[in-house]
Amino acid sequence: MRVCVIGNGVAGSMVAERLSSRGVAVTLYTEEPYGFYSRIKLPQLLCDEEGLCALPSTREAPYLVHKAVKKIDRQKQEILLDDGETSPYDFLVLATGSRGRVLDAFANTKGVSTLRTLEDALLISQTLADPVVVLGGGLLGLEAALAILRKGYGVTVCEGASHILARQLDAKASKLLRVQLESDGLVINECIKATGKRVDQDNRIEALVVEGREDIPCKTLILSLGVNAETSLAKDADLEVDRGIVVDEKLRTSDEHIFAIGDCAQYKGQVPGILPVAIGMAQSVMATLLGETKDYIPPVLMTRFKDEKLEIVSVGDVSGASTNKLKDGRYEAYFVEDGKLKGALLYGSVENVAFLRSHYLKAVTPEEIAELLSF
Ligand SMILES: Cc1cc2nc3c(=O)[nH]c(=O)nc-3n(C[C@H](O)[C@H](O)[C@H](O)COP(=O)(O)OP(=O)(O)OC[C@H]3O[C@@H](n4cnc5c(N)ncnc54)[C@H](O)[C@@H]3O)c2cc1C
C-alpha cells in the first residue's frame, strides 16, 4: 500500500510518522522549508528570533519531501509536484490546513502580515515597528498582542464585534478581560469596522482607516481575522467542498481513496480549526489505514486562552441565558438548554474544567451547577 500525505502540520505529520513506524510506504509532502513545528507556540515567540529559529524539528524524517503538491489526478491516482514529477498513491491524505484571512485592501502592503506560519512570525519579528495594531480580538490576536506588548511596544487591538473573544466569552467575562488587559497597557477598540489603509511612498502601512472615527496610526499591522480551510487542491480535483473538504465518519472525502483531516476538513458541517480536532482526526485516519474499524468521534471543542497571568477556558455555545457567579475576579457561567450543558466558560480558575469535559452536551442538574458555583 502506498500512502501520500499532503501537509506537514500536526495532522499530516502524525499520520506519516505512525504509518511509517508500522512499515507502510508513506511519503509526506510539505511546501514549507522546515521540519515539523508547533504553530501554537508562534505568538509567544514573536520578537524572539532565536526561539523561532529553534522551533522546527531538526530531524529530517526519511519520508518527508519538501515539494508543494500542485494537482491531484484521481483517474490515475497520482499527484503532480511543483517540479513536474508525479507520485502514485493507493490512498491520499489531505492535511493541507488553513490560511490566515487577508482583506483585499491590505494585500501586498509592507508592514502587514497574518500570523499563520513560521515565516510570518519571523517576518513580523524582523520588521516590527511601533506602533502596532492587531486587527481581530480573537484568541490568536490577543495572544500575539500581549506577546508584543510585553516586549515594550505600543499595541492596539481592533475588534469588529461588540466585545473581544466574542465566540468564547459572554459580555460579562469579556468586560473583565478587557479591564485586565487595559490595565496591562493594551489599547482595545471594539465595534471597529476597518475600511482601508494609509501607506507611505514606499507602500508601507502608516495607519488603519476605520469607519466613523480617526485613522489609527500603525507601522506594523497584524491581521488576525480567522482562517479559511485550504481546499484548492480538493476543489480542483472535483471533490465535494463546502467551507472545508467534506468528509464522512471515516474522514473519507467524496473519493473513497482520499481522506481529509485537520483544519482543511469539514465534518458534520463544522470546520473548527483547532488542535484537538486535528489530532483526533489524525488518530482516526491512522487506525483506518492500519485496518482498524473505528469511526471518528469529535473531541470536546474546548478553547483555552493562554497567558502568564490569566487562565480562561470556554466550551460550546456561550450565548443566551446562563447561571453564573462572579467573586474576587473569578467568573463562571454555565449555559443549559433543555436540561443539557450546551456551553460554559471559566475565567480566572480552571478548577472545574474536568466537569466541562465530562458533562458537555450531557444532562446536568441545577444542584450540580450550584455546587460548581459554590466558590
Ligand atoms: C498562531 C497560532 C496559534 C494557535 N493556537 C492554538 C491553540 O492555542 N489551541 C488550538 O487548539 N489551536 C490553535 N491553533 C490552531 C492549530 O494550530 C491548528 O488547528 C492546527 O495547526 C491544524 O493542523 P493541520 O495539520 O490541520 O494544518 P496546518 O498546521 O495548517 O498544516 C498544514 C500544512 O500543509 C501545508 N500545505 C498546504 N497545501 C499544501 C500543498 N499543496 N503542498 C504541500 N504542502 C501544503 C501547509 O503549508 C502547512 O504546512 C493556532 C494556530 C495558529 C496559526
TrEMBL record:
- Cofactor names: FAD
Keyword Flavoprotein part of the UniProt annotation: yes
UniProt keywords (A-Z) are: FAD, Flavoprotein
GO MF annotations in UniProt? oxidoreductase activity
In Pfam terms, one family for this protein is Pyr_redox_2
Q: Does the keyword Membrane apply?
A: no
Occurrences of domain FAD/NAD(P)-binding (ranges): 1-280
InterPro entries recorded: FAD-bd_OxRdtase, FAD/NAD-bd_sf, FAD/NAD-binding_dom
Q: Which residues form a coiled coil?
A: none
Q: Supply the PANTHER family for this chain.
A: NITRITE REDUCTASE [NAD(P)H], PYRIDINE NUCLEOTIDE-DISULFIDE OXIDOREDUCTASE DOMAIN-CONTAINING
> Which family is it part of?
Belongs to the FAD-dependent oxidoreductase family.
Provide the protein name: NAD(P)H-nitrite reductase
Please give the organism: Sphaerochaeta pleomorpha (strain ATCC BAA-1885 / DSM 22778 / Grapes)
